[in-house]
Amino acid sequence: MAAMRIIQLTPGTGNFYCGSCLRDNTLVRGLRARGHDAIMVPLYLPHVLDEPAESAGVPIFLSGISVFLDQKYPKLRRPAWLDRVLSSPRLLKRAANLAGMTSAKDLGESTVSMLKGKDGCQANELDRLIEWLRTQPKPDIFCLSNSLLSGLALRLKEEFRVPVVSSFQGEDSFLDALFEPYRKKSWELLAARCAEVDHFISVSRYFASEMKRRLGLSGDIVSIAYPGIAADEFSVAAEPPSPSAIGYLARMHHAKGLGTLVDAFIELKKRNRVPDFRLRIAGAMTNTDTRFVDSLRDKLSSRGLLASVDFLPNISREAKHEFFRTLSVFSVPATYGEAFGFYVLESLAAGVPVVQPRHAAFPEILEQTGGGLLCEPDDVASLADKLESLLLDAPRARALGAKGRAAVREKFTIEQMITSTEENLSDVVARKR
């Protein structure tokens, strides 16, 4: 396969780990290892990763502060030196920690504006990105981390005469959370912008089907490239943990179903059929999540159960690997249509079975791995039943975990993710030449 010059454009979060950033970072590193000239360009905010950043040394474009100012004061023109200051990673990280920096109205307006591309309020920021890209060797293809960046596609194609490919990896939940009239307008604009993208790569069959339906896409314009993880980094505990433990590892946010899991834990304690067991909650926690987490602590405390729950915010990569070794079963009962769920692969790689809702990509993942059970979505009793069945039957739980671990090591490797993506990108480049 001929080497390609690939430019990957990926938004950062500034203050918490993001599965999309981790996936893109791993992908760029793997493509480089295969001889491709791939670079990763950060947008909006710095990338927060638990591994070396492949975007190191590359400026941040479409700075979150600049995008905000352009939206609020579209006629205000800033000198170039000030834009460079506003793109400082240190300043952007501080801005990311400011809870409520933008209102729901601001967020809706800026999303609509970004989807307008060169006709939006951020046209000057887009110009700045184009100017920098002109200083780099011409790419063979641009890769957008998600379709919310599709407002960039037409301008990139006009300037560089190369194809643009976008991933589909969970952008629907963001748009659906916008207030009207911005939700409807954003979906309309996204459909128009996606018509300017040459091809899409989805992280699951479920999400490919969902986005094709909602955007009116047809034919074979969407391919599938399952995410992959370094399964060898995860080891299986030699003995079942004592006491047994239910685990959660995702952002500590209500949309991830953490409240449902806490309620299921309370229900299990009330039933009192399972000997002493704990709930271990780990993952990203931002300033905006604090109130929600405090409400969960208060609920547990009022029932005398807070001492049986561990809250482990923002754990390191090494601590994450050890965390899974302490678990009997794992669940992130997300309330929305999760496009994939890296955490499921990580749990299975450690030999820990999962209980996930019967919606979104979870049935697809469990069909592929056989590493757990499905419960009814947003149903505390159903979740509690499935968790209880595994806590009471350790041999079955370990058998499901072992089956899932073998499947992840076979089907969801980094090498397979890179191969699938590489083949898709090569095909698009070949068609457009």
Fold and architecture overview:
The protein has helices at residues 19-33, 64-72, 80-86, 89-96, 104-115, 123-134, 153-160, 171-176, 182-194, 205-215, 258-271, 290-302, 317-325, 342-349, 362-369, 380-391, 394-411, 414-432; strands at 5-11, 37-43, 141-144, 164-168, 199-202, 222-224, 244-249, 277-283, 309-313, 329-330, 354-357, 372-375. Helix content is 47%, strand content 13%. Strand 3 (141-144), helix 7 (153-160) and strand 4 (164-168) form a beta-alpha-beta unit. It is built from 18 helices and 12 strands. It is globular and about 65 Å long. The strands form 3 sheets. Strands 2-1-3-4-5-6 form a 6-stranded parallel beta sheet, with helices on both faces. It has 2 domains: 5-228 and 414-432, Rossmann fold (3-Layer(aba) Sandwich); 231-411, Glycogen Phosphorylase B (Rossmann fold), CATH 3.40.50.2000. Helix 1 packs across helix 18 (414-432), helix 5 runs parallel beside helix 9 (182-194) and helix 14 packs across helix 17. With 433 residues, the chain is of the alpha/beta class.
Jot down its keywords.
433 residues; alpha/beta; Rossmann fold; 2 domains; six-stranded parallel beta sheet; four-stranded parallel beta sheet; 18 helices; 47% helix
